[in-house]
Specification:
The chain has 289 residues and is α/β, with parallel strands linked by helices. It is built from 11 helices and 8 strands. It has an 8-stranded mixed β-sheet with strand order 3-4-2-5-1-6-7-8, sandwiched between helices. Helix 1 runs parallel beside helix 11 and helix 4 crosses helix 6. The longest helix is centred in the C-terminal third of the chain and has 19 residues. It starts with a helix and ends in a 9-residue tail after the last helix. 48% of the residues are buried.
Length: 289
Amino acid sequence: MPASPSQADALRDAVGRDGIAATNPSAGGTPTLLVASGRGGSGTTLLSALLAVAAAGDGVRVLLVDADDFVGPLAMTLGVTPQASWTDLRGGRVTPSQVATPVSSTLTLVAGGAPRQGADADGATAVAITAAERRACMRRLSPLTEQADLVVVDCGARLDPVLAAIAPHANERLVAVSAGSDPVALAATYALCKAVHTRHRALPVDVLVNRHEGSEAARCFDAIDAGARQFLGLSLRLAGAIPADPTLDAALRRGMPFPDAAAGSPAALAAHDVVMRALSVRSPSRSGV
């Protein structure tokens, strides 16, 4: 989707003349958004795809990582057929370049899901991936992340993928997705923020409100932020709000390719604003994480 003049100016400031993210060297890496939720059904897959497509549409080189090692829904969402997933990096079955699936000239997907190559590919001898193996696989993606201007990681509703994706010295932000204003939804988002902050206190934490907008989204954020300030001493940042979008849902149900279905939709426009703000924010150095 084309950016407005003011958005284009902001994007040039954030990305730089040569299309390379103007990252603070002390932050040590490519801007990375870890999209996660405290409970299932919050929409991290759709939001991750929207954020990635919105940035890629403006010429930003985006690496989108599906951290789900069970299903890996992003490949189906984007309509591509990967030859390998990041789980195939375990044991050196494949190289990082072999898990990179081009979606467009500026968007590359690292698929999730079960191994597609080697001994585990038929599922007969599949062994659950350990936390250490998960971290090692994520680290092996560094040649791909270094070539990107922005990395978006869909961590879903499990804590393990979030913790595995957090790298020392990286320019990362946790984007905690809240998809409801009910007490359970708010408590789940707060619990995610607490769990990650307890382990990585220097990691910046943003809240992205899904399926709400305006004053309702503000109330969701304020409730979570108040709890984080009172009990964690943590100040959260509102990443933005993505409205419920029946037109996008209907287009996807009709089988329209995701980038085409998203183009110009209210949800995609809101996601574009989220990306713009994310690229303009500098994460502090997190040496020793």
